[in-house]
Design a protein that fits this description.
The protein is mainly alpha-helical and about 170 residues long. Helix content is about 65%, strand content about 10%. Helix 1 crosses helix 5, helix 2 (about 60-85) crosses helix 4 and helix 3 (about 90-110) packs across helix 4. It is globular, with a radius of gyration of 15 Å.
Length: about 170
Amino acid sequence: MKFSQLEATAYHEAGHAVVAYVLGIEFWDDALTIKPTADYDGLFTYTNPLRGFGFEAEISDESRLKAERAVQVLLAGIEAQRRHRPSSVRQRHAESDREKADDVISHFARDPRESKAYSKLLKIRVQLIFDDPSQWKCVEALSTALIDRKALSGAEATNIIRASWGSPGSE
C-alpha cells in the first residue's frame, strides 16, 4: 500500500474512532488497524450500540438515538478522510460504511425523503464534531499513531485521544 493510501486509511479509521469516543461508544481490544487484507484496507472495531437490538420489535426514542450514534460512527470515516485530503476519497472507500448506514436509517426513517434528510443531518453532526479543533486534533494524533504502528488496541487509541483532547465530560 502506498504511503498516501496508508495515510488516507489511517485518517478514515481514526475518524470512526474519534466519533465513537465522543459519543461514548466502547472500543474493542483490537480496535484499529491499517494492515490491509483481502476484505479491507483498514478496520475499526467497537461495541455496536445496536448489538442485540431488533428494529422490528421496537422503534423507540432510545433505539432511534442508538441508531443515530451507530450511523454517525459509520459516516465518520469518510468525513475524516475527506477533511484531511479530499483528493484521497474514492467511491469504494465508503461503500460498505454507507450501505450499513443507509440500512440502519431505513429502519427508523420509512420514507426515502426522510432517509435522505436523516443521512444529511447525521453527516452534518459528524462534520460538527470535526469542526471542533480539539476533536480534529485527536483524529490527527490517532492517524499519526496508526501510520507509525499499523495497529492500536482500544486502550492505546483511548489514551491517544485523551492525551490529545481530554475525556468528554471532564470539564
